[in-house]
Amino acid sequence: MDYKGLYQQKLTSAEEAVKVVKSGDWVDYGWCTNHPVSLDKALAARKDELTDVKIRGGVTMWMPEVAKAEDAGDHFTWHSWHCSGLDRKVISKGCGFFIPMRYSELPRFYRENVDVDVAMIQVTPMDKHGNFSYALAASHLADMLDKAKVIILEVNENLPWIYGLTGSEINIKDVDMVVEGENPPVAQLGGGGEPTEVDKAVANLVVPEIPDGACLQLGIGGMPNTIGSMIAQSDLKDLSVHTEMYVDGFVDMAEAGKITGRNKALDKGRQVFAFAAGSQRMYDYMDRNPDVMAAPVDYTNDVHVISQIDNFVSINNAIDMDLFGQVNAESAGLKHISGTGGQLDFAMGAYLSKGGKSFICMSSTVTGKDGSVKSRIVPTLTNGSIATDPRSCVHYIVTEYGMVNMKGLSTWERAEQIINIAHPDFRDQLIKDAEKMGIWRRSNKK
Q1: Largest Cα–Cα distance in the chain?
Q2: Whole-model pTM above 0.90?
Q3: Catalytic residue, candidates 65, 169, 244, 330
Q4: CA geometry: angle at 120 spanning 117 and 125, to 5°?
Q5: Which residues of 139-150 are buried (b: 16+ CB within 10 A; e: fewer)?
Q6: Are strands 148-155 and 271-273 parallel, antiparallel or unpaired?
Q7: HSE (CB half, 13 Å, CA atoms) of 32?
Q8: Residue 244 is among the residues annotated as catalytic for this protein
């Protein structure tokens, strides 16, 4: 097949390509670093011609042009599968909403539940076989594009080519239009700055629980990255990676010789992930690196897949938790923060793994903008807060004051153990709250 000829036939400008979008359409931008740039600008320029165009994205790394105009909500409505700070800004502006999901189910949503009129995403340049790599976000893109009535690719020469499973590339014969974009630098995600003393204290509790040969999943944020850096400096060896999100901490570990993947039951020797966001150093490491493998999220986050990997260790963050052991990683009351993502998938999968452990890590307190200090451990979740991890699925909870294994504990034992890792300034009040709730025994220490 003449792939180059086919490419030229389908090559067009961003302005021409977006003319296929009609009022009322569902338009998909893909995920994270794959959101379009030139196509987004061209679609925004058609604002006054369009109404009720509904756009999906997720983990947004830059403000979409379609959301910048003051009256953007009269023409476009943004829908985020998982919120970053920018998604929250779009939502607070009044032209966006969140779509709840467990991340492992997202490809199936596209196969069975949602419609896509037009899909437009950034991809790598085409190879000699007519293929484009989804680069840093295999995620759900294959199923999304299968469902789309029109597929428009925006080529970015700066995206790294990532080797992967079926579902990490698309061929020119399956594409409707190609746009050669502006080739912006790939959006980078900071690691959260220097680790705090709390980060270090939590890491010091978690790292000794990780055995040689463990398979790791790290969530986003400063605390998981601190743990990754500490692992890189530890004596641990022969570690593996099977994760939803690939972050800089894995590169630290790999370059320190900690990751070999030799003990991994599935995808031996490969660092498997669904999407990635981090530094340019990380992108350079991943580019055409056979040690790294992209895969659709219904593989990476499948509880049954995770459970087949022995000594699986999952490390994630939380916003707060209550005395029943319910974990909220999504909202501050009614204020939406992120999403369920894959946290529940990995909490369940890691526990089902032989020798596996799931850690939910957080600081014991949070300081508000007014300087007030509040406990992250609360009697019951704040009104409107989301129970990301139900109490029945939580394994280890860690703060700077200690670690507790929740499995097998009764309600009064949970309350006692959780209060033991709360900040000391709040423990007496939490005991009183537990007494009122009927989950505190008289024989418990006071």
Answers
A1: 80
A2: yes
A3: 244
A4: 145
A5: bbbbbbbbbbeb
A6: unpaired
A7: 21
A8: yes
